[in-house]
């Protein structure tokens, strides 16, 4: 909900014995954050960030984060940390985001970059490993291609990266021989599919001439959308390739969830209306540590923050009603004055 800080937690399915914290940022040292975060100078029109806890908060200092300040701007800022590989490890990415403004079009997501990213030239074309958050609700996690996304500490989405996102087409280039096999298989499968749905009760038209008109196209029954990986128009190529290669290790060649050189985190996004605050960044390999960190940060301030938000909302509604009543009263008074003036002039005549 706009106006309430929401932690976006990418939590993995497996645990490791000891937590390793690769990156943690709470912005508790005032303006010294500028020594750790690099504003991109790729474009002079990029928007600027400031440190702020916003109009409402649970703790004025603890709730300070990076806030977008200019409407209708792209933003690009990043921070480095010691490079690491998450191969064979859990990967947890967590942060909080608060929208004080009415969000109609804009990003609230973060990106995780390779260690060699050019921070000064960061832009929409910069290579990144993971894009996670609002607009993109998914996050790669463990080496078994599973993911789990949590909001307010509660899982809202989990499953398999491979199957849920239909990424099989990205994992293997189709050779000419496979393409030829595919075309033949598609034709055969399409014919087999059609046969299952011919209307056996239909009869050929009496005036149908096979020599002139060709084979009679028997009428078809309504077909279900999917069956055994097939579609009414034939067979999906990605599904066919997946079944053809399901016993191979081709997935390991494409790094869907493992990255060798993770070394930076950043915000590279567009906002029509500014005011969003990003805070409590965390990258670690331990779910329990992330859970405790979330409780110690946003978990401690969310209650008072919501109370302040609710109080301000009531005050704004009260003020709006008073202004509306004043306008109505003013309109009535103006109407009476207009009537009086007309009546007075008529008597003078």
TrEMBL record:
Residues 1-19 form the signal peptide. It comes from the Eukaryota. Pfam families: Calreticulin (PF00262). InterPro entries: Calret/calnex (IPR001580), Calret/calnex_CS (IPR018124), Calreticulin/calnexin_P_dom_sf (IPR009033), ConA-like_dom_sf (IPR013320). The keyword Cell cycle does not apply. Keywords: Chaperone, Coiled coil, Endoplasmic reticulum, Glycoprotein, Repeat, Signal. Its main location: endoplasmic reticulum. It is found in: Endoplasmic reticulum lumen. GO terms for biological process: ERAD pathway. Residues 307-334 form a coiled coil. One of its GO terms (molecular function) is unfolded protein binding. GO terms for cellular component: endoplasmic reticulum lumen; endoplasmic reticulum membrane; nuclear envelope. Belongs to the calreticulin family. This is Calreticulin 3. The lineage of its organism: Eukaryota, Metazoa, Chordata, Craniata, Vertebrata.
């Amino acid at each position: 909900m706009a106006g309430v800080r929401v932690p976006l937690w990418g939590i993995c399915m497996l645990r490791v014995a000891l937590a390793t914290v690769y990156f943690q940022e709470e912005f508790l040292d005032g303006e010294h954050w500028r020594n750790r975060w690099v504003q991109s100078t790729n474009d002079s029109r990029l928007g600027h960030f400031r440190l702020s806890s916003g109009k409402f908060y649970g703790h004025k200092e603890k709730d300070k984060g990076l806030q977008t300040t200019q409407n209708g701007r792209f933003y690009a800022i990043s921070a480095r940390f010691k490079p690491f590989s998450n191969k064979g490890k859990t990967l947890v990415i967590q942060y909080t985001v608060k929208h004080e403004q009415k969000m109609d079009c804009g990003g609230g997501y973060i990106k995780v970059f390779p260690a060699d990213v050019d921070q000064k030239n960061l832009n929409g074309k910069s290579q990144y490993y993971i894009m996670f958050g609002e607009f993109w609700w998914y996050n790669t996690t463990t080496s078994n291609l599973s993911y789990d996304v949590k909001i307010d500490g509660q899982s809202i989405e989990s499953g398999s990266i491979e199957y849920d996102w239909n990424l099989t087409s990205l994992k293997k280039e189709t050779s000419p021989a496979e393409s030829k096999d595919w075309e033949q298989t598609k034709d055969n499968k399409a014919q087999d599919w059609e046969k299952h749905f011919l209307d056996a009760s239909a009869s050929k038209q009496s005036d149908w001439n096979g020599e002139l008109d060709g084979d009679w196209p028997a009428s078809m029954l309504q077909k279900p959308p999917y069956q055994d990986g097939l579609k009414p128009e034939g067979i999906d190529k990605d599904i066919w390739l997946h079944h053809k290669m399901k016993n191979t290790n081709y997935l390991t060649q494409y790094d869907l969830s493992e990255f060798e050189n993770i070394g930076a985190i950043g915000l590279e996004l567009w906002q029509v209306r500014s005011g969003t605050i990003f805070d409590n960044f965390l990258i670690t390999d331990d779910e329990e540590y992330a859970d405790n960190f979330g409780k110690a940060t946003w978990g401690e301030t969310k209650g008072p923050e919501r109370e302040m938000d609710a109080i301000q909302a009531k005050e704004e509604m009260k003020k709006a009603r008073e202004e509306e009543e004043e306008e109505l009263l003013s309109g009535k008074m103006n109407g009476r004055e207009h009537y009086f003036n007309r009546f007075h002039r008529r008597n003078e005549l």
